[in-house]
Every structure is written in structure tokens, then in C-alpha cells.
């Protein structure tokens, strides 16, 4: 494990057997300085800087940058294996976000992760299991080689809209697992018997706030599909209209899931903020606008809709709202629906947004749940899989695994080679 034994983010696991190698994830560390040269953050893996036929593939468990974010800085000759929806979402997001993957990510013909369908990558057999996580199309991975079995949890939870996937994993866990690499993001953040709110409970909280008239701005990641669905369902319950921008709509459309809201659905409107209009003109991506023309509203339409509108919001949209007049801010609500650590960083964008809204007389409250499993649910997972050895990963609190999960916990260090 090149990173992750003592931190959350930057996950990268290298497996070797019979002279060939496989990577599980190639994540960007969360604490990276934007001024750093990302190529210097690549772990010392042969085949990332120069061609090496022994590196069979990089398998990406899901679409969060702390699991894929260094991929654009590795050479393009290494096959990348991910879920089909993960690839579509990252490609849809690429025109809008920094550190986007190059369009060549997962070239034609590369294998695709699909629940329960084993892949053969050189001497490795990889079987993906679809899991509940705040990233759409996330997988845990069983890797077999040389008669040994390693199970990598990736990032997962039990309290999202797809919690049934976690229960299915408990009913039919992988058997005879020699080593389980399990994420422990919630350790140190949650009491041992405490549970995170369910996504259904988040939806109910949204609905309660939406019953009060006035514009509601919700700061959430457009790639947190569960959260957007919860927000949309709360809008339908309260007769509100959810206003989405170009980026959010492209991400939703990329899921190709007929149960996920897209332009043209009732209680949904399309608004393209100034910064996206400028970006479209600068990059000549007018094709992005064409698809949404029938459902698009403009400034005057947003002003008329505002008292019953819910806007998936980010700081770059403030000028659009200011242009509608000071009366817009009267009775407005702001909800932060992502990790509240971004608000605690005084120099961060979340804290700056909170201050900017306060200047306009708008308070911000937090309505959020974690994308990661509670300690209670992690304990259930360990009991179901019953691995010979449990190794902490994606955690700041790996030294506390033994007190929660039993005597088979084995601590490993970043950069340490060991036998499964």
C-alpha cells in the first residue's frame, strides 16, 4: 500500500504475482498543495512514468479523486479498468472541473467493472461487488492470484439510497479471504455505537426546510447522485422546483439510469450561470447547451421562480443571484450538504461562502450524512467476511482497528511489501 495506511485519501495498492503487477486505485492525496507538481506525487510504481509491460492495469474502485486523481499524470499506456458509469460521469464532468481525467481514460476495448462479473488481468482474477457509497458506481474488489484471496472494501456505507447493496454483501460475502483491506474513515469521527443519518432522513430534513417560502440554496456535490435525488424528491413533496446547472445535469445524464432525474422531468429547471456561459463560449462547447434548450430558464425566469426554487449552488453562482436584486435574499436559506470540514477551514472556499452569505443576511445550516460506513456497520462487514487478516486502509485511526474489530488486525506501513 503506497498510501492510505495512515491517512484518508491518495489510496494506491500495488499487487504483484508471477512477475506481473496490478494497481488498485491511484488517488490524489487530500492534503495536496495546489502548487505541488502532481507528477512528483506519483508513488514509486514501475510503469507509471515509463512503459512497463509487467504493470497489467490500474483498477479504479470509484470516481472520487482521492482514488483516481493521479491518473492524468501517469503515462497513458497503462490500461485503466473502472465501471462504465464511472467513466461516463468523469468524462461528463471533465469540461467543468479541475484535475479532470483526459478523454482517453479507459480506452475502447479496456475491461469494465460490472457487479459479480470476474475479470482476468494477467495472473489476477478480479471480481467487483457494487456497493453503497456517495460516489455512483462504486465497487469493492476481490482479487485472486496464486491461490490467495484479497478483498479490498474500497469506500462503502450502509445508510445511503443503495443500502440494500451492503446488506446483500453481508448475506453473500466473499469466502476464504486471506487478507481484507478495509476503509476506516469513520474511526475518530464517530462514537463506536453511533450511526450516521440515512439518506432517507436527509431527504426528510430537506422537505421540512423547503416548506418555508423563499429561495433555498443547497451546497452539495453534483456527483453525489444520492444527495441530488434526495433533494429532488423533497422538492416534489413540497411543490418546489429544483434548479440545476449545466454541470450537474451532464453528470446526472451520464448515469444513464432511468430512475435518476434529468432535464424534462417535472419540478426541475435548467439555469446556466454566467461562469458556465463564459466557459462554453471560451471552449466553443455550444453542444452542451443545445440539449437543454427546451427546459432552460434565464435570469427573469429564475427571479420569478425564486420563492419556490431550490438551487444546487456553488460560490461561482453568487453574481447571478446578486444581479436579481437585494429582495431575492429576503427569506433565503442556505444549506451545506457536504463534509463540514470544508467550513471549519477558515481559509477555505466553504468558510468564504458562509461569510459572503452572512453579508447578505443569510445563515447557513448543515444537513449532511457521510459517504462512509459507521463503525457499527464496519463491524458487521468484518464479521460477515471473517478474513484471516484485517489490514486498515483509508483511515487516520488504523491503530484503533484492533479495539473495534478483533485480534486479526495487522498494521502495515506505506511502502511495505508483504505476502497476502
What are the SSEs and their pairings?
Blueprint: E1 13-17, E2 20-24, E3 55-59, H1 65-68, E4 80-83, H2 84-93, E5 112-113, E6 119-121, E7 124-131, E8 138-145, E9 148-152, H3 163-171, E10 179-183, H4 199-210, E11 216-219, H5 225-238, E12 241-244, H6 246-254, E13 268-271, H7 274-283, H8 287-290, E14 296-297, H9 299-305, E15 309-312, H10 318-322, E16 333-336, H11 341-344, H12 349-359, E17 364-366, H13 375-385, E18 389-393, H14 401-405
Helix pairs in contact: 2-6, 4-5
Keywords:
420 residues, alpha/beta, seven-stranded parallel sheet, six-stranded mixed sheet, globular
Strand segment tally: 18
Q: State the helical fraction.
A: 25-40%
Give the rounded overall mean pLDDT: 94
User: What is the C-alpha radius of gyration, as a whole number of Å?
Assistant: 22 Å
Q: Which strand order does the major sheet show?
A: 14-13-12-15-11-16-17
**Strand-residue proportion:** 15-25%
Subunit arrangement of the protein: single chain
Going by helix content, strand content and strand pairing, the class is: alpha/beta
Number of helices in the DSSP assignment: 14
Uncertain residue ranges: none
